[in-house]
Amino acid sequence: MWVRVENTPSSDGHFGSWTQLAPKAAFHLSAALNKNNLLVVVGVDNHGDTWQTTQNPGTNTYTGWTKIDGLTLRP
Question: What count of other Cβ atoms lies within 10 Å of the Cβ of residue 68?
Answer without folding.
Answer: 13
